[in-house]
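Appendix B. Worked example

We walk through a single record from start to finish. Start with the input: the chain for RidA family protein, Nibrella viscosa, length 174.
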Amino acid sequence: MKQVVVATALLCLLTISAGFGQKVDYDKKVTELGITLYAPSKPVANYVKAVRTGNLLFLAGHVSTRADNSGITGKVGKDLTVEQGYEAAKVTTVSLLSTLKAELGSLNRVKRIVKVTGMVNCLPDFADQPKVINGCSDLLVSIFGDTGRHARTAVGMTIPLNYAVEIEMVVEVE
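Next comes the structure step. The output line below is what the pipeline stores for this chain.
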């Protein structure tokens, strides 16, 4: 009887510890969250959307555009609410993730989201840029968990073509 209890306990421990080493399938997680990634658009000027050096991938600034190229425009705090700005940041993040997947072939190659720089189109007296860029940070953490927690900057400025949000990202990859 004692051997059966010990064997059962060891089996339980092995099962639990095996689960801790299991990696989350980020591509599947995106689908489970109802997010559809798409083929990224071509750059509109003389730059590239991503540059890899070593194990770091630098994503150029992406603006608040959807898969159909319709944009979310306006100044947050004037034309858009903070909540609408938050949604614009989520839309921008989907664009970033689409470029990331196109570059890597799979989001499962992401080792860590290192840095997010979020820019919010707003008037000089607007002070809730962090609340807007939380749309990006919250989405990254919902997909990548602790791997998605990142250093961040959230600032206000005028963004070209009146887009509501622009975000750039640095990602450590395998």
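Two observations about the output. DSSP finds four helices and five strands in the chain. The beta strands are 50-53, 56-63, 110-121, 151-157, 165-173.
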